[in-house]
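Quality-control log, excerpt.
Job 1 of 2 completed; input and output follow.
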Amino acid sequence: MNADEMKASIGKETVSDWIEVSQDMINKFADATGDHQFIHVDPERAKQTPFGTTIAHGFLTLSLLPLIAAKNADAPRLDGVKMGVNYGGNKVRFLAPVPSGSRVRGRSKITEFDEKRPGQFQYTTETTVEIEGSEKPAMIAEWITQIFV
């Protein structure tokens, strides 16, 4: 879609496919970040916590935003994008833990879309990460992306 169509899509909610958050994914994230706290990587000790199992790192949940976007076939996309970069976040809240083996999906909407200079656009997406079978979402994030055409 073109820039005017992107602007017109502000507020339109779309939903991604489900993504499994496996123990293997959690372990690899722990290795990548050095965060090996037992609630993430030790299923036996994690059984003794209020969670009853290992849980994903909050930052792992946040890092799923690009995958959530890729698995959201109905999300608005600007035509001719050569490159996109993370610009930062306005707000991130971790509301509920993501148990290992659970599935999550993103419910997203663009809240802002602006041309910063010719060929460079910036948009903000609000994404609520839902956990299958849970009323409470795992996370709500406002994320800013810049794209170049």
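Job 2 of 2 completed; input and output follow.
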Amino acid sequence: MSGKDAYLKVENLTKMFGEFTALKNISLEVFEGEFVCFLGPSGCGKTTLLRAIAGLDIQTRGRVEQGGKDISGLPPSERDFGIVFQSYALFPNLTVNKNVAYGLENRKTPKADIDARVAELLESVGLTDQSDKYPAQLSGGQQQRVALSRALATKPGLLLLDEPLSALDAKVRVHLRHEIKQLQLRLGITTIMVTHDQEEALTMADRIVVMDEGEIEQIGTPEDIYSRPANPFVADFVGTMNFLAGTAGANGGVRLGDIDLATTNGPGGIMEGVEDGDAVTVCIRPEDVATRGVTPDTANAIPAVIKTLEFLGSFYRATLRARDTGKTAIRADFSINLVRDLEITEGQDFTIALPADHIRVYGEAFAHADDLI
């Protein structure tokens, strides 16, 4: 997004509830047409940030700008957004048609224009034949579509989604997240979605804002967040990660027990400021652990024993105990073909390798570092 002006700017935003600081000096930019997800655990501040942007919970300090206009002190009614809440908040006494038309009627839009806009939106979400029904007569997925149509009816500049899929079952959720993303792309509307579901964020977002304890931990594309987590928290929260307690070695390498590992650190070096012998956390994702064709001479090879094999449908997740690194446990994903071809079983000796270009090293000991079986 370099070189473009931001459509939404949040600058040094702080929100306090009494003595509790829910948001701590938050700054971020969202660009026109972008789909951004606020991702984090419960209580991290993501919904509070969304509500501050909407004016539903005015910030204690800081500035919010939308489309070049300072909206920091404006009430929600004077801000240009549509919002879908987790509960959908549909009017139970109004039909689908009337729910979608509600905002347009409040604006005294001519009836012919209202009818055309409502028909257009209901067709876009596949609910034309449900227009005379009431919310209680609809499924959860249909109610979500109605809420989305109502939020879009006035053609807002910004769409805010507060965990809109969390109340739905898994299959409906997967289907609707695709629908929402395709609708957002078709309309080109700038969208912010709050979610605690990493899969939703990875599949839907152009960029993800990972939050914890009222602060931003990392902002990046889904690939950046997953492949290049900025710190152990992001590495732990997004996806599955091995956290191995090690010590810094010479030339940017690390030691796990008696094994020396070569690493490839990114620009600036994630090991910067770490001295030989300092405690570090070594991270690698289970799918990045090398398994086929590994010999004791392979770079970063680790002789291990397979302690458990967990069948997960399309692959097995193995837990291995490294023979030369004390109690260190490493999770690795084995393909169905690998397990079948090599007749892999629990208790078997097996050599794995940790490819240098997939290892992340953090210059701090992490509480979740695996020290297993």
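Post-run check on job 2. The first helix runs from residue 46 to 54.
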